[in-house]
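PROTEIN DESIGN WORKSHEET
SECTION A - STRUCTURE
LENGTH: 82
TOKENS:
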């Protein structure tokens, strides 16, 4: 293979890859459905993240309140007038 043939071969492969990636074998309805499915999955992931964040936040607050209650009970049982 000569250098010119090699350059032409590489250009042909690059153009074939580029046209393959831009063209789709799906109909318009199928493309819309795929986009909606991807969006639904992204929303589901965001919902899970929000639930996890809020649950962890609630657990931290429960730990802080519980620790305060235990400290208050300890102080009351040891003679503090609170």
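SECTION B - SEQUENCE
RESIDUE ASSIGNMENT:
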């Amino acid at each position: 293979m000569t250098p010119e043939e090699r350059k032409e071969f590489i250009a042909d492969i690059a153009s074939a890859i580029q046209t393959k990636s831009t063209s789709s074998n799906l109909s318009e309805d199928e493309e819309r459905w795929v986009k909606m499915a991807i969006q639904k999955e992204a929303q589901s992931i965001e919902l899970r993240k929000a639930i996890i964040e809020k649950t962890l936040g609630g657990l931290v607050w429960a730990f802080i309140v519980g620790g305060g209650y235990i400290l208050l009970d300890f102080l009351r049982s040891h003679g503090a007038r609170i």
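SECTION C - NOTES
The first helix runs from residue 3 to 22.
Helices lie at 3-22, 28-77.
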